[in-house]
Design a protein that fits this description.
- Helix 25 links the parallel strand 9 (about 450-455) and strand 10 (about 475-480).
- Helix content is about 45%, strand content about 15%.
- With about 650 residues, it is an alpha/beta fold.
- The longest helix is centred in the N-terminal third of the chain and has 16 residues, at about 55-70.
- The strands form two sheets. Strands 3-2-1-4-5-7-6 form a seven-stranded mixed beta sheet, sandwiched between helices. A seven-stranded mixed beta sheet has the order 10-9-8-11-12-14-13, with helices on both faces.
- The chain starts with 12 loop residues before the first helix and ends in a 32-residue tail after the last helix.
- The relative contact order is 0.09.
Length: about 650
């Protein structure tokens, strides 16, 4: 059954125009939702707007609005969509509107005229959420005071206002209330990692932002209707004439925005405004969709724009777009960050859609017991023979570490920037070359020369067998030795486009020397990427972090927060992606933290160019800044400075005007 979820669009379009600079040559791809932002964009006069939605009911809503603009007077249009006047709607629907609608749309509205009878402002699940949250305000008479223009913000709302604020900022209720407003659980999880940040924002919205003059988003829900002086721009009388002239510029598309971009063809879109649609998507889905949109963007004038419930870029796929944070104070306040970026350069979209072998490796319980026995024996031994340790585990090695070392697939496929099609790759501490299986197609497509370096002959023997099985022997060179040893370095290329280290740095006692070596091996414009264990940011001294550090050290794995600090202190490395997450150790309740990191080595030429354009250093921000939410970069009034476990630095590159 078709059902409206959104009765109004909850993304402030005024913010969009501060960075989009839309004009008559633009072809805009965006999401329909309730059609509010589509019609707002239409006021700017772009050449074409492709309004996309997977929910046909939302498209039916926009189509009816367009029909109303074509056939009615402004007064009738405002009565229907600003006041939900059921009498006006029924008087014009069959005689003027229905004949302008597609058959499917007409059938939908034939069955749903009650949405206007019951007040369209509260239609859909978002309307139900509005009723729940506004009920205490109605009891307090706030809606009447708003109509009369009284100031009811802050402490002036009385007990019921205070009660509403407490309900909204009580995080255990979010998982129940959020779906009513069309907020998927996956999206809510972006703020649940650090709920205090979002709770502080909600308090700021409820006490300050929602009461500002002209904030129609909250006025409409609290009062139950818009007024001509407080309404979306498309409902303003002064814009009605130009909207009538431009209704044929809107094209409806039932499906995904990626499919719409693919249908338009390469280079056809100048602005892709994707709202918050990627918040609930897993990395693979984001990659598949972004690849199609980037292909569809005009290479010179294209812009990609999106909002996020979280306070920073939430996926490495998006991190590699190198978009900029939009530091603007919007009227809604629910979205903690908004980003815009030009069509990325040196970026091959199809690379993020490629696959590895998709082979899963697992052990029997007996196999795992044998590995854990070997680990315990190694940990208790006073004479730690690393080569003997690995050789004793044989083929069981990969099976046990598949669960012990999480997110290597995400790291290899999405954190590593395959869109740049690296021609040389050095894998430090490659082990059995399991990482290669995640990116076999990437290696073939890029024609990458791979150098697998490891200290253990036993692990390299397994790596050689794996590479041969994958049919990549001609592209791979095996190097046995210590990365810090001069003789090992002589066997490696002087510079490489890509250097990776996967769960190995914590096993190298002279780690700083190893990091310097790896950094020196990266060519200017190339990338250094690491995934490894660490102590969780902000709680390094907590009892569980101390336990993990002590426990893993017995197996020769040394958790050290200084690894990350050192990387961020390097002025010639620009952080592209950094995130932290947790993974459970097999057969234990332990959930140690691991990080994923990607940085680009900056050439002297790029340093000068970035400095000339932005007037700022292109170096990555210090950890204290990176750990700070995007709220610090926006003109909010809450003063929130929350910490999160999963983060990416605020993008800084502005080498091209957008």
């Amino acid at each position: 059954k078709k059902k409206n979820i959104y009765n109004i669009s909850w993304e402030d379009p005024a913010i969009d125009h501060t960075v989009m600079h839309m004009n008559g040559d633009d072809v805009v791809l965006t999401i329909s939702s309730a059609g509010c932002n589509v019609l707002d964009y239409l006021c700017e006069g772009p050449k074409k707007i492709i309004a996309v939605d997977m929910n046909a009911a939302q498209l039916h809503t926009l189509e009816l609005k367009l029909a109303c603009i074509k056939a009615l007077t402004w007064e009738q249009f405002f009565d229907i969509w600003g006041r939900s006047d059921y009498q006006v709607f029924t008087s014009v629907y069959k005689s003027k509107l229905r004949k302008l609608l597609q058959t499917e749309t007409a059938e939908f509205w034939d069955m749903n005229t009650h949405l206007f009878r019951d007040n369209f402002m509260y239609a859909g699940t978002s309307g139900l959420m509005a009723k729940i949250l506004c009920a205490p305000l109605w009891l307090a008479g706030v809606h009447k005071r708003m109509v009369h223009g009284e100031d009811v913000g802050g402490e002036r709302g009385g007990f019921f206002f205070w009660f509403t604020m407490k309900i909204a900022s009580f995080s255990p209720l979010w998982s129940w209330i959020a779906p009513l407003g069309g907020v998927p659980i996956e999206q809510l999880n972006l703020v649940m990692r650090n709920p205090q940040v979002f709770a502080e924002r909600l308090v700021e919205v409820l006490t300050t932002r929602m009461w500002k003059k002209g904030n129609y988003f909250y006025y409409g829900y609290i009062v139950g209707e818009f007024s001509p002086k407080c309404c979306p721009r498309y409902l303003e009388k002064k814009n009605f004439k130009v909207l009538k002239e431009r209704t044929d510029r809107v094209e409806l598309f039932h499906g995904t925005w990626a499919d719409a971009a693919e249908r338009e063809g390469p280079g056809s879109i100048t602005i892709a405004s994707l709202l918050d649609s990627m918040d609930w998507m897993p990395h693979q889905m984001i990659a598949e969709n972004i690849a199609k949109v980037v292909t569809g963007l005009d290479k010179e004038r294209g812009k990609i724009y999106w909002r996020c419930f979280g306070d920073r870029v939430h996926s490495p796929v998006l991190g590699h777009l190198r978009a900029s944070l939009v530091p603007t104070y919007d009227r809604v306040g629910w979205y903690l960050s908004t980003f815009i970026g030009p069509t990325p350069e040196n970026y091959e979209p199809k690379m993020i859609t490629l696959n590895g072998t998709n082979r899963r490796i697992s052990n029997t319980v007996f196999d795992d017991m044998c590995v854990m026995y070997a680990m315990a024996s190694h940990g208790l031994s006073s004479n730690k023979d690393v080569r003997k340790f690995y050789k004793s585990q044989g083929t069981r090695y990969d099976g046990f570490r598949e669960a012990l070392l999480p997110h290597r697939d995400v790291f290899m496929q999405y954190v590593v920037p395959w869109t740049k099609m690296p021609k040389t790759w050095i894998s430090v501490g490659c082990g059995t070359a399991r990482d290669i299986e995640f990116v076999t197609d990437h290696i073939r497509e890029s024609k990458t020369k791979v150098y697998l370096c490891d200290l253990s002959d036993a692990l390299l023997a397994m790596a050689k067998s794996r590479v041969k099985m994958l049919g990549l022997a001609k592209q791979v060179v095996f190097i046995e030795g210590d990365i810090n040893a001069t003789e090992t370095q002589k066997k490696l290329p002087a510079e490489a486009d890509l250097v990776t280290c996967s769960y190995c740095l914590t096993m190298i006692p002279p780690w700083k020397e190893a990091l310097k070596t790896m950094k020196n091996l990266v060519a200017p414009g190339g990338n250094l990427c690491l995934i490894d264990f660490t102590l969780r940011e902000g709680v390094m001294d907590r009892w569980d972090q101390r336990l993990y550090k002590w426990w893993f050290a017995h197996d020769g794995v040394y958790f050290n927060r200084a690894h990350v600090d050192f990387l961020e202190s390097q002025k010639d490395l620009e952080t592209v992606w950094y995130s932290e997450d947790e993974g459970r150790v097999p057969y234990t309740p332990f959930k140690p933290t691991h990080y994923m990191y990607c940085a680009e080595k900056i050439s002297d030429k790029k340093k000068k160019t970035n400095h000339r354009v932005t007037g700022r250093s292109p170096s990555p921000p210090p950890r204290a800044s990176r750990g700070t939410s995007a709220l610090s970069a926006t003109n909010t009034k809450s003063g929130s400075r929350g910490k999160r476990r999963s983060m990416s630095p605020t993008p800084r590159r502005r080498s091209r005007r957008i």
